Amino acid sequence: MGGIRRSLRYTGELLDAGYCPLVYPEGGRTTDGSLRPLRPGIGLMAVHLKVPIVPVILCGLFEVYSIHHRWPQPGSVRACIGEPMRFPGEKDYQLITRRIEDVFRQLFHSLQANG
Q1: 8 A C-beta contact, residue 96 and residue 46
Q2: Which residue has the higher pLDDT, 110 or 14?
Q3: Secondary structure (DSSP) of 20-48
């Protein structure tokens, strides 16, 4: 829990200072361009920091700059920004993480379907 507590504290400090932290809830880059399961830290942030979570999906980023590239490649990246998600009074961070992941997957599939 030490690393998680430090991350929560640091993210809280950024929020208190007026910043809007960008978090990559998968915990790392994908090896094949697919959406990986979300790590529970995003649910913990929603519960403990009481902040809205704004899902953002970037499609095409894997083709432009994957873990297999040394440098970014020419190409297009599309962004899909979902509605802010709020979880007032909820305490089950694992359930919240699954709910956030469901929205991420819907946005991801929507972007892929729309080419």
Answers
A1: yes
A2: 14
A3: -----TTSS--SSSPPPPPPTHHHHHHHH
**Rounded distance, CA 25 to CA 4, Å?**
13
Pair of tokens at residue 65? 């700059």
Provide the token pair at 112.
Answer: 């892929």
Residue with tokens 């020419």: 74
Mean per-residue pLDDT over the chain, rounded: 90
Parallel, antiparallel or unpaired: strands 78-81 and 56-59: antiparallel
Beta strands in the chain (DSSP E): 56-59, 78-81
Distances (CA, A) of 92 to 17, 47, 57, 75, 113: 27, 8, 24, 40, 32
Token digits of residue 18? 């007026």
pTM: 0.86
Determine the average pLDDT of the residues in 56-84.
91
Residue identified by tokens 């083709």 is 63
